[in-house]
Amino acid sequence: MPGVQAALSPSVHFIGAFDPMIRTFDIIMKTANGSSYNSYIVRGSEGVCIMDTVKKQFADQFFERLEKQCSYDEIKFIVLHHLEPDHSGALLDLMERAPQAKLIISGRAVMMLKALVKSEIEYEAVSTGKTISLGDKTITFLSTPFLHWPDTMSSYLHEEKILFSGDVFGSHYYDERLYDDEVGDFSYAFRYYYEHIMRPFKPYVLQALKLYKKYEIDVIAPLHGPILRMDPQSYIDKYEKWSTGAKYKKSIAGRKIVSVFYMSSYDNTLAMAEKITEGADAVDGIVASMYDLASLEEQNMIDLLEESNAVILGSPTINGDAVKPAWDLLACMPYLENSSKIGATFGSFGWTGEAPDMLQDRMRWLKFRLPVDPLKIKLIPNDQELMQSFNFGREVAEITMGKMVEMEL
Ligand code: FEO
Questions:
Q1: Pocket of ligand 1 contains residue 223 by CB under 6 Å
Q2: Is the CB of 167 under 6 A from ligand 1?
Q3: What are the tens digits of pLDDT across the range 120-144?
């Protein structure tokens, strides 16, 4: 094993594991630079505390590093900030080796722990403000839910001013030089991690940052990627900026945003999209825009969805289904905060015409509010049908502006 500068401070050491070859994480994230499963040991005058474990397949690395720092009978506490298997994979093995250690988890982690270990084990559930002592070292727990799972918490080591932040401030970026002032440029990985893990939970990020602000922080020790010691505040500032930006930009010059996304094979769904956009844009207080899904990158889809107050989605029906780019657009929704946007669907069709209904069903599961029935027009829209499309867009826009109607929630 290469020599790693394990010491974060006199009493804290890195005992995690490196996974340089992982290329996809949690199915959804690309990890071109691999990753690490960070765990740490904190030594006090009255024992040691282990901060998280690692993915099961990497337990050997973890135990080898741990054994260089302590003997198992010195372990007084095992803290799991987050129970996802990339951090809890070696827990049972560790508890067998250190049966005297007290396991500490967040209150929200209790059910998950039972599902994960499938056996009765002793634990203490903690919430914000709970403190444990290692004699001359004191650790306070901070509840930071949804970052990344509901169970996630952070903790703060007072004497060394180290924040153990859980997944917050993580990066999937393998580099055994370990510290932000020594590793390569991981800024893209830091942002990418935020976009995929934290972005749907911006209000929770802001809540967590408020908690962190109560403490002076010299080092941030996250669960993945570089340890942040060069200018910890700069990472906090980035999270704050990213979490307060687009979410609150829900209008352009005070107007609400209606976005019409469409695909069209013979310009018929396109003709509907144009009239729908025109109808929506005619409503005072609305700015409506249309986007051809055939040429939209995923990141643009995410940004546009985030800033839209209403999303109107159109697809022709091909072989009894909506077209793939329409499904791809809706597949971006898990990256966003669930803010109950208005939704509507439409499409021209030749034979069966199920696509708008299918998309509306999917939007229902994604918690869109759906005030109007899908608009379906057979083949080429005539003048009356184009007017119907115009009125459809106007109706959705008026509801977006607050017109009261009964709607599916
Ligand atoms: Fe790194 Fe959400 O586990």
A1: yes
A2: yes
A3: 788 999 999 999 999 999 999 999 9
The response to whether residue 82 sits with its C-beta less than 6 Å from ligand 1 reads yes
Q: What angle in degrees, to the nearest 10, is found between the helix axes of 298-307 and 324-331?
A: 60
Question: How much of the chain exceeds pLDDT 70, in percent?
Answer: 97
Helix (H, G, I), strand (E, B) or coil at 342: strand
Question: Does 256-400 carry CATH code 3.40.50.360?
Answer: yes
Would you kindly state where each structural domain of the chain is located, as residue ranges?
A: 7-243, 256-400
pLDDT for the residue numbered 108: 93
Beta bridge partners of 13: 7, 41
Distance 87 CA to ligand 1 centre (A): 7
* CATH homologous superfamily for the domain 7-243: Ribonuclease Z/Hydroxyacylglutathione hydrolase-like (3.60.15.10)
What is the rounded distance in angstroms from the CA atom of residue 266 to the CA atom of residue 377?
Answer: 13
pLDDT tens for residues 98-107?
Answer: 999 999 999 9
202 CB near ligand 1 (under 6 Å): no
- CB of residue 224 inside a 6 A radius of ligand 1: yes
Specify the residue with its C-alpha closest to ligand 1, atom 3.
84
Single out the residue of 41, 51, 19, 14 nearest to residue 32, CA to CA.
19
* Ligand 1, atom 2, residue with closest C-alpha: 148
Does the pLDDT of residue 1 top 50, yes or no? Answer: no
Say yes or no: CB of residue 81 within 6 Å of ligand 1: no
**pLDDT given for residue 143 in this prediction:** 97
Q: Which two tokens stand for residue 203?
A: 């209000």
pTM, to two decimals: 0.84
The reported pLDDT for the residue numbered 249 is 53
